[in-house]
Specification:
CATH class of the largest domain in chain A: Alpha Beta
Order of helices and strands of chain A: HHHHHHHHEHEHEHEEEHEEEEEEH
Number of domains of chain C: 3
Chains: A alpha/beta (356), B alpha/beta (646), C alpha/beta (585)
Helix content of chain A: 40-55%
Region (Disordered) (chain C): 1-68, 83-126, 162-234
Number of domains of chain A: 2
CATH topology of the largest domain in chain A: Rossmann fold
Largest interface: A-C, 58 and 57 residues
Strand order of the largest sheet of chain C: 3-2-1-4-7-11-12
CATH superfamily of the largest domain in chain A: Translation initiation factor eif-2b, domain 2
Oligomer: heterotrimer
Helix content of chain C: 55-70%
Largest sheet of chain A: 7 strands, mixed
Subcellular location (chain C): Cytoplasm, Cytosol
Family (chain C): Belongs to the eIF-2B alpha/beta/delta subunits family.
Main location (chain C): cytoplasm
Number of helices of chain A: 13
Structural class of chain A: alpha/beta
Organism (chain C): Chrysodeixis includens (Soybean looper)
CATH architecture of the largest domain in chain A: 3-Layer(aba) Sandwich
Strand content of chain C: 5-15%
Radius of gyration of chain C: 26 Å
Number of helices of chain C: 20
Distance between the termini of chain A: 10 Å
Distance between the termini of chain C: 57 Å
Amino acid sequence: MSPSKGSGKDLDDKFIDLIGKFVSDIKNGKLRGSNNIALSMVTLLETIISDSQNATAYELCTAVRAAGRRVAAALPHELVASNVTRRILRAVRDENRAHANQVNQTVEGSGESLQRLVLAAGARRATLGAAQHDLREPLRDHIAELRGELESSVSSVCGQAKEHVHGDEVILTYGASALAEKFLRAAPRTYKLILAEGPETAESHAMAHRLSTAGISVTVVSSASIYAVMSRVNKVVISVSAALGGGAVLAAAGLSAVTQAARHYSVPVLALAPLYKLCPVHATDASYFNALAPPHSALPYERHECASDNVHVYAPMYDFAPPDHITLFITNLGGSSPSYMYRLLSELYDPNDYNL
Amino acid sequence: MEIDKENVVQAVVIMDTFNDHFNPISKCKPMSLLPVAGVPLINYILESLAHGGVGEVILFCCQDGPTIKDYIRKSIENKAIWSVTMDVQVMMSDSCQTMGDVMREIDAAGLVRGYFILAGVNTITNINFGALLEQHKQLCKKDKGAAMTLVYKKVAWEHPLIGSDKPIFLAADANTNKVLMHHKYKPKSTEKSISLPLEVVLNHSEVKLHHNLADANIALCSPSVPPLFSDNFDFQTRDDFVHGILINEEILASSLYYTLLKGNQYAAAVTNWKTYQTVCRDVLHNWAYPLSFETGSTEQNNYLFMGNHIFREKSSTLSRSCSLIEDVLIGSQTHINDNTVVSKSVIGKNCVIGNNVTITGSHIMNNVVIKDNCKVLNSFIDEQCTIGENSVIENGTIIASNVVVDAGSQLKGTLLESSEVDKEKSLMKSTSECTEWENESSGSGGDDFIGFEKSWSSSESCYSSDGSDESSLPDSPVPEDTNIFLQEVIDSLARGYEEKLKNDYLILEINSSRYAYNIQLHEVNFFVVRALLSMPVLAENKNVLNTVKDILKYFRPVLSNYIKTKSSIMDCLRAVEDSCIKCEWLDGKSGQVLHLLYEADVVDEDSLIEWHKDLEENESPIANQTSLVKFFDWLEEASEESDDSD
Amino acid sequence: MSSTDNKSREDVMAARQAKKLAKQKGKEAAPEQVQIPAEAQVKPATPVQQEKPSKPEPKVNSLKSKDEVDKAVLKEEKVIVADKSKDDIKAERAAKKAAKQAKKKGATEGGDAPQDKPQVAAAAPANENMTVKDVVETLRDIAIVAKEIQGVTDKVIDLGAKKAEDSSKSKAELKAERRAKQEAQRAAKQAAQEKVVAKPKAEAKAAPEKDATSVKVEKAVKPKSTEKPKVKSQGSHRVNWFQHLYKEHDKESLKTIAINSNLHPAIIKLGVQLASRVVSGSNARCIALLDALKKMVRDYTLPAKTEFARGLEAHLASSLDFLWAMRQPSASQTNAVKFFRYHLTQLPNNVDEFDAKKTLQEEIDRYIREQIDMAGEAISIAVRNKISNGDNILTYGCSSLIERILLDAWAAGLQFRTVVVGSRVQPAAQHMLRRLVARGLPCTYIDITALGFVMNTVSKVVLGAGALLVNGSVLGSAGSAQLALAARARNVPVLVACETHKFCDRVQTDAFVYNEIGDPDDLIDKNDENSPLKDWRTNPNLTPLNLTYDVTPPSLVTAVVTELAILPCTSAPVVLRFKLSEYGV
């Protein structure tokens, strides 16, 4: 279903250089935060689209797809980038379809549905081959729209804070996350926050400090005493690094402990997942993507145990929480239950683009 | 790089280690292409430099320049990540034999614009060079003389990184991190004690002593460093440099600092087989994150993680019945057959491992074929080798590329190269090593490997450091050494005397040669005087005493530089004694010489008397020389006079 | 005339005082060990300084004090409603009763302390009695020193301050600060006198009262002098569900050692070791305690014409006060003490001193040998039979018992891998790892955050325990509950290894009722010098909380391995009864 693996051939060199720049920026830490990555990915794809010499739906699709694939190969853990790519692809398809509809004056609705049928069934070439005209113009506003959404998504997620957090509640959050922090700031300040430090201790502490100076009463607990305090918690707020198709969640290591404890005390768990974090992957286990982080966080290199031959020290990057641990996803379109995520998927992406 | 040249961070990578620790492998391919965990060393350093925000890299190759050059060209062609943000230029000069030469070359060519990072190709690190260099610059604002900041990683004392490599003893001012003393143990040294000069402790409110530092072969240099190298022709290695600076700090008007890496920063240098193995393991265990065995490739996640730090490339094929225990890396297209057991090993690309093979603690490069029922323990097998059936290879055997080991052969700690001659040689060498393990190896695989390479590095008992094995003079027993030193001092003094050089330079020369042959201070005092009195001028000259006189006059500063304390005076006197015995031209003139010295008040009276006493005690041949006796009579009178005068 | 009317007013004051205290306790959600006794103390302290003041001035104060009191009381009414749990109410009721009695009987009422203890004791856990006990103590004190209203007003002011602070932190910050200062000075002044007053009193009381609760009251007495100011300054840094647990970490309390000349050096040493966590781990603590006791018994010299048991008991009580002040007793320690007391009481009245010492020391040795050493062996055998080759055993933190089990199993030639789970705050696990690795066991080390990552490869979880409670829940070091939960989620069996001498008759359903607050500074990242948390003391909103224990519900534990048998942990009561019949402990 996907064309030949050699992603290089679909792209000309200047694009490849662009992508290289993008990738190295992320690798060298110049570019941080999923939201920024998403935005700059959009910019990257936009340039690719606007600079590609013949912009029929098919060429664009191949180019964008190739770029997406290349980035995904270089940064397998920046799922956001590929999500954005899918969004753009979807835009291309829609445009193409709309155009096709205009050409053969069919009624919108039926045309849509027909197209849908075809799309659902047929291979990409079949559906895209139809139109042979420049899509750049119409795509531009699509992309602008998408960018707008990305920029606003954080604020719109945080906007819902009031609906979920209110006075005199005890909220528990885990680890450090820009999104969670904004969300908690947006909520009325009267609640009490328990911040369980995640694997990246320094950031968690920094976040605790910032929030407390912002006038929220923060209690910092170590990741070991989450279960102990959970029975007093009213809600758990976590920010995810990816929301998976089945309603499962991928987030910082140690999350599963939190969600398990929450479930054990049946405390509701709110997962902050702006739509660009929603990726069409159905997994039942973290091992599918999991990568190893440097084990310094667990055991300092100075200790000679870690040099001894029969010791292994692990520090995974992600942790996985099954759908039934999550009570509610808070996307920028409002709350939605885990069981509904699959639907959002099919609204955001085209089924053909699920795997780039 | 659009950024203006000035604030682009520069780095110099020296592509050779100037030692043969990795023979015969390093003979047939450049060090920089030696794969660690399947990735050539050069990729690590380049990647980490790029990651550390370095904008411009100078790769300085002393051999196999072309190979490296087109390796770089290739990787730029297929868009290696680092190639985007960094521009890399390859320098070649076959003349350079040591790091010192390289630095001089660089100075001559004026390659570096300002502060720069100096790293070895064998460095593997994930530190942020940019930040560290900035730190060094700040430091230079405070102390103009700051020449170099050495980068160390603190590790446990038992840690293999320092356990096998020569450990360092470092004394530094705790407040400023200024290095005060830097002492490198000789390999397998039995020395139990280190003498820490008292003034080190007295002059500084707080002094830090480090003994468990792993040297990552990284240094942050001020612009003054290359000139320093050119000025001091005898700086061969970085350690020479360090010692040189420390010994005559005030003369060179430059000082050294050091910095320790934080907990989450990794830095190590591949200096010998043991560290090679350790670093491989660390890379597998992801300590060097973001560096990994996927470094240098644009694609990632081509390796499948199978628990216990076992990774296999997606395209590699394992038979159902083969078992991987732990710490295994298997390259692409490699096939492993039935009932084979692999543990703690790295297997390269396109290898074929037969049935019932046992591989433990070994490193197997690309395109190696190992036939059935072999045993490979703690060994290194380079590319394109073929190992015949039922052969046993263990105890740190090293097999260079393109070797065919015939079936059923038993190899213990041997070095195999394609040519038979070497084989013989290495075989006999290996026997000695075998004996070594018996008392060294504590059973576990890794240790045999140490045992192997320990004996390896000991086989050439290098003097000051890894780097300077060939460069600094050939190994020689200490006495000879001092003779050479004496000779050099004499030469330089003579030259100085003829060309009327400034004394400072002479002192400088003496010092540098002093430490080059590492001569103790009192010995230096001794030899300087000795040299003064045995200068060729005296030999041919008729009127010895006058010459001695104006020699003394001329070299007064030199003398006063060395002959300060009581003990040094005694050294001086002993030197006089010695020279009076050895040099015929001073025969019987000891008294006069002493008188001259006395007048030039190099020596003072009580020390003279003291010296005279022990002369008589160990009745030395000159003790009852008329001139000497006369001198001392005169001396005593003088003293008496002075006594009753006051 | 005036004196009598004085009297009546004083009674009123006393009564109010009592009520206030009771509510105070109610408000503080369970017995506040730090403050109440402290206050109780002020009054015995004051007479010394108040000896001289002439009658007239009290009147003036009294007026002031009165309305102070009312204000305070009113304030409380509001606050109490906020968070009042069942047992609080109980405590309060008990306290009120006590208060009434106090009013009736006035000064002499040592009698009814015993009376109302049982009532509450029946209902509420051990430390609940304590509140009541406190009140009674307090009342007695009030009665004694009712002469100076001065003292009372002081108290009211304190409470006023405290109220203001507790109820509305942010608002009354400044006020609290000021108070704190005053308090500091006063405390300083008093410190001197207490030394005079407190000690004799302590000894005097310690003798007659046998039960551990009274011990507690005394305990808090000693460190008090330094605590009072601290309480104020740090009040804002206390997670309010844990108010009852906070104990000053400052080593000030060690200073009071000097006063207690009659403590045995071994005890003092142990005290310091406990306080500075040199001796930690329930087994180690237990053994250290017994050892210290042994030394104490050995060197004990019987005062003239006192019965051995009584004399030693008195001595024991005072030393235990000191120890418990240093660090709260672990279940193992309390059991050991019970055992010791039991054997002390078993001694015949006319026993010869030498024999008595001999028997006691032998008993102690026996206890260590049977209860700890042999028990450990038995358990290690039992667990070994549950370990099979190729297993992947996961354990948490550092437990001497677990270490022993693993090493034995390895020595017995079993091939297994150990996954040592540690948490950043407690380095103990790293020591465990070091010891295991030193013996050549293949180990995997992970931080507790990585649980989900390894759990699917783990075949058994073996945990140590601090104590096994009667209701079957396991009191373990913070995090073990999390482990058990994760294991349960993966259906991995969880074995808790726990000698029966760690069984204790407390019941507890969550980690709040009883816990120990570790040093908050441990949360701060040691290896970065400017950690954002480091200035938490100056930031009223930021509170690092470092719990020492958590409670694993029986539902998450597959079985408890004891030296007697491998049991479901719900059968803890059975074991306790059995032991009671067996050893009388």
